[in-house]
Amino acid sequence: MTLTELNQRFAIGNHVQFKEIAAGMIIAEVANQHALANIVLQGAHIATFQPRGEEPVIWLSPYAKFAPGKSIRGGVPVCWPWFGAHKSDSKLPGHGYARTVPWDVLETNALPDGTTFLRFGLIESDSTRAQWPHPSSVQLAVTVGKSLRVELVTTNTGKEPFELSEALHTYFQISDVAKMTIRGLENCAYLDKVQDFARCTQKDGIVIDSEVDRVYVDTAADCVIEDKGLKRAIRISKQGSLSTVVWNPWTEKADKMGDFGQDGHRGMVCVESGNAMENVAMLAPGETHKLVAVYSVEKL
Fold first, then answer.
1. Annotated catalytic residue 55
2. Torsion sign (Cα): 257, 261, 267, 273
3. What is the pTM of this model?
4. Residue 227: which CATH number?
5. How many domains does the structure of the chain reveal?
6. Annotation says 272 is catalytic
7. Which of 45, 166, 272, 289 is catalytic?
8. Contacts of 8 (CB under 8 A, 6+ apart)
9. What is the DSSP letter of 123?
């Protein structure tokens, strides 16, 4: 669909407008009484979310690249239909292909409470079917208000069951990683990628002072990012998710990635809601699985 067609069919006054930000890269620009947000149609990738009167909640690198087929550094990448490396083919892209392929706009709606609802559907192609031979449909529903609600919905449309791993790889904006603590995962088991996936147990709140890459398993708990620098807490509530991933690449890895900028990793932390490792989901024919995450701001 062209930019003109998108605006003719799905624009809503000042609530939703579609704009081209780079060649082949279109965003849905959302503005309502509660918040501002931008969603890139490639990957149905929420790039920004900022409640009015607040600092941004979602972190987007100032050096993020917007190019067809390339992942975007920051925002809310959709990891689907696998999380991390592919189980049997290392040549396939890490975290799946959903974040780097086009999605359709299926619906936009200005709701009576002043929030804005958008729904996107992943576009299948010969390339995606070659990577994922299981008939299925996937949609992302986004509600932009004082909080941000994200729903990743997968339906098995085939005749055989399949295994699904997934995550909303959300980057949160913080004042400084040294002024932040993550609560809600105390006493949870996690698999530590930095230690070759050693199984550990989280004792207290999570404080980050080096590379962190952990999959916390068997947890449906809320997480709260306490940020003393911004005097706020970001609450991550979730449904349909038994894994929480915490990630910060730290200095050396961030520098090698090239799209963080100097010390960029200090202003972000990923707290990802998903189903990974020991918590992969199994979908029977005709079954639908819904992963929901809600991000809200509280005063400290």
1. no
2. negative
3. 0.97
4. 2.70.98.10
5. 1
6. yes
7. 272
8. none
9. P
